[in-house]
Amino acid sequence: MNLSFSTIHKPEQIKMYNASVLHEMNLVSDLESELKGEYPKETIREEMFASEFTKFYHMQVNKGRGVIYNYDFFIDKLIEGNLPCLFFMPQSPLPVRKDVKGIAVKFAALETNKDITEFAKEYGLLGVLNFSYRNADYGLTVFEPIYWWKHYINHVKRLLRLYELLRKKHKNKSIDIIGELLNYKESNGIGTVQWIEGEEVPFYLEEEKLNDDGLENLDLIAGAYTLTVSIKDVLKSAINVNFSDVIKSKDSEIGFRIKEIYSTDYLIGAIYYDLWSLINNNVEILFCNHCGRTFTKSGRKKYCSDSCKTMAYKKRKKEGE
Hints:
By secondary structure, this protein is α+β, with helices and mostly antiparallel strands. The protein contains 13 helices and twelve strands. The strands form four sheets. It has a four-stranded mixed sheet with strand order 4-1-10-9, with helices on one face. It has a three-stranded antiparallel sheet with strand order 2-3-5. Strands 6-7-8 form a three-stranded antiparallel sheet. A hairpin with a 4-residue loop joins strand 7 and strand 8 (200-206). Helix 8 (146-170) packs antiparallel against helix 11 (218-235).
């Protein structure tokens, strides 16, 4: 089912600055006096005050204090490290509906800060108040650290890689998911799964409840559960279920059917829902043979772009000399 996603972010309102500019915001004590006048947009600070940024910033900070322990310390660390962040300078926020089909693959292909900024200008900020793969807290944000984006990009890319391995495993190819992407540990009959990179996947298997076939296909079971649970946990509370119409139907036991609508106000919800959909629709995802970026299969393409195809050819030619 298609997902309805609307963003209030306009391309010109998304910018990347280092976190040191947040120092000014932390010094603002009288919010009302700062918002009264008209300010020129010659400096970053003036641009922030000229927009609705200050008001939304304080809303984000107040909500963030409820979901991140010592949120002020988190802000101070961002400022101290002068870490790059994406900023949203809201002015007359009006929602614009975006087509998000295929967005998960586009998101996973982002690499540089410039890539991320251009993507955010098109789709907006992620809409998370804290970084978490589990039970993320969603809300309107006007700044997000770039490293949050990179963590989510790596997570989606890793899930796409797991999806690819599951497809190959199902076709009886010699693939070891446990060992290549996942670690499996058993203790007192309870099996737990971790990504090779470290974090644990929030589910366990009771080995005594697995029959011989289940034990033989442990690789597939661990991979399938990891993929499903990982996406489900991020989607929790991000997707709204509504209806657009009630339609008469002779096939229905009550005489009508409900036309459902799925929607989200949060970009991260749209990304993971698209990932969920492409898995259910058996969409084939490829990883570029040159740069490793993700792309959707089209014909016999092995590269994400003509540039990568050319560079790969030059590399083969040089190695053959």
